[in-house]
Amino acid sequence: MTWSGECKYTWAMVSQVSTHYRLRGRNILLGITAGVAAYKAAELARLLVKVGAQVQAVMTPSASEFIGPMTLQAVTGRPVRQALFDSQHEAAMGHIELARWADLVLIAPATADFLARLAAGMADDLLATLCLASEAPLAVAPAMNEKMWRHPATQANMATLAARGVMLWGPAEGEQACGDTGPGRMLEPAELLQRAVSAMGGGRFAGRRAVITAGPTREPLDPVRFLGNRSSGRMGYAIAGSLAREGAEVTLVSGPVALECPPGVERISVETAMEMHTAALTAAKSADLFVACAAVADYRPRGAADHKIKKGAETLQVDLVKNPDILRDVAALPDRPFCVGFAAETERLREHASGKLRDKGADMIAANPVGEGLGFESDDNALLVIWKEGSLELPRQRKGRLAEQLVSVIAERMDAQATA
User: Fold this and answer.
1) Residue 365: in which H helix or E strand, if any?
2) Which of 137, 158, 248, 386 is 20 to 30 A off residue 367, Cα-Cα?
3) DSSP 3-state helix, strand, coil percentages of the chain (rounded to 5)?
4) Would you call 293 a catalytic residue per the annotation?
C-alpha cells in the first residue's frame, strides 16, 4: 500500500504493513497450562504459524482438560509434547534438544500455579523443565481469577520472575469466566503476536531514541494552591511503555501523576510547564521521536504569592501569562525529531486537529474527544490521527491497546518519511 494522497486509513490497512516477517523461520515453543484461557492458545498458534514461525506446543498434564492436543497438532503441524518421561524422545535427551531448539518460550496461558512453580525453579513436568533448561527469552501471559492475581503470593512470584528477566505480557482487565471483573484475563492472541514480534526482532524502534511528555502540569498560585487539569497521564505512560517494548530508548518527561514508570523507561519528573519545557527541549535535541502527550497548562500566574492567599474579598483577580509551546519549540529545532502532538477537544475534532498540525509544525496530530467517558481520568480513549497526506481513526478502547496501535502508525509514518 502507499501513503501518498489525502486518504482516510483503517486500522486493518495499517496492520497489513506490519513487521510480522521478523518471526518467519523462528522457533517458538508455546507452553499451555491448565487455565480456561487455554482455548485461545489454538488461535495464537495459528497466528504464529501464519506469519512463518515454527511452533512447538508443549502442554502441562492438566492442560488437556481445557483443550485437546489434536487441535494444537492440527494447527502447528507438529505432535504436541506433554510427558517429561517420553521414551520416544528422551532416549536422546529430547527435552534438552527442544530447549536448545527454541528461539522464544511463550507460556500462554500461564496459571498462578505454573508461575509459582516457575518462580521456585521447579522442574516437575516437561514445560517447567524446558523453562529451566532453555536459554531462549521467556515470556509469560498470566491468566487467572482477579483475586488470585492480586494475591500477595502471586505478586511476589511475578516480581521474582521480572527480576530474572522474564517478560510479563499482561494480564488484561475485564470480565472473567467465573463472573468476576478485574485484572487476570490473558492478552488476546493478536496482541501476544505483536509482543512476540517485538521480542524477536528487537522492535521497530530499536536504535531510536524517543522522548514523551505525559500527565498534567501544576502552576502555583501560592505555597498550597495551583492551577491544574484532570490529566491522569495514562495515555502518555502507555505510549512510553509501548515504545520501550518496541526497542526504543525512552525518556518520559512526566508531570505529577500516580503511576509507576514503565519498565525500561527513564523518567524525568517535573511540575510546572516551564520545567517541562526545559526538560523536553533538552532531551528532544538528541531524539528521533518526540511525542507531546502531556496536558500542559496554557497559562501560568504571573507570580505566585509567597504566603497562602487568605479568603477575604468576594472576588480574586489572578494575572495570567502565556506558557511557551513545547511542541512548536521542539518542531522548530534544527535537525528536529519526528514530532507527534496531542489535541484534546470537546468539539470539531478534525478541524481543530488539522489546524494544530499546521500551526505547530508537527508531523502528526493525535486528536481525542474529551467527555462521555473518554480522555481525562478514563481508562478508555479514541483517536483521530492526522498527518499531511492522510488520517486514521482508532476506535474507542483501553489506552494500553490504543497506544500499541498509535505506535505502529508512528513507525509507519517515520519509515515512509525516511524513504521519501
Assistant:
1) strand 364-369
2) 248
3) 35, 25, 40
4) no
pLDDT band at 13 (very low <50, low <70, confident <90, very high): very low
- Contact yes or no for 49/28 (Cβ under 8 A): no
Instruction: Name the CATH topology of 20-201.
Output: Rossmann fold (3.40.50)
Domain boundaries, the chain: 20-201, 209-301+319-419
Check if the beta carbon of residue 401 is closer than 8 Å to that of residue 407: no
Strand, helix or coil for residue 394? strand
CA atoms of 127 and 60, how far apart (whole Å)? 6
- Cell 529451566 sits on residue: 132
Residue 186 to residues 222, 239, 373, Cα–Cα distance (Å): 47, 21, 25
Res. 9: pLDDT tops 70: no
Categorize the per-residue pLDDT at 317 as very low, low, confident or very high, splitting at 50, 70 and 90.
Answer: confident
Domains 20-201 and 209-301+319-419 share a fold: yes
Query: Partners of 387 in the beta sheet?
Result: 364, 390
Of 13-17, 81-85, 151-155, the poorest mean pLDDT is in 13-17
* pLDDT per position as a tens digit, 340-392: 999 888 788 889 889 999 999 999 999 988 766 555 656 778 889 999 888 88
Torsion angle in degrees (nearest 10) through CA of 70, 74, 76, 78: 60
The listed CATH number (1.20.1540.10, 2.30.30.210, 3.40.50.1170, 3.40.50.10300) that belongs to domain 209-301+319-419: 3.40.50.10300
Give the dihedral sign, CA 79/133/111/396. Answer: negative
Is the pLDDT assigned to residue 76 strictly greater than 90?
yes
Do residues 167 and 105 lie in contact, with contact meaning Cβ atoms separated by under 8 Å?
Answer: no
Residue whose C-alpha cell is 496531542: 342
Q: What phi and psi values does residue 45 have, to the nearest 5 degrees?
A: -60, -40
In angstroms, how far is CA 48 from the centroid of its own chain? 20
Verdict on whether the full-model pTM lies above 0.70? no
- Phi, psi at 304, each rounded to 5°: -80, 145
Nearest CA among 201, 130, 132 for reference residue 161: 132
Q: Which residues pair with 300 in a beta bridge?
A: 321
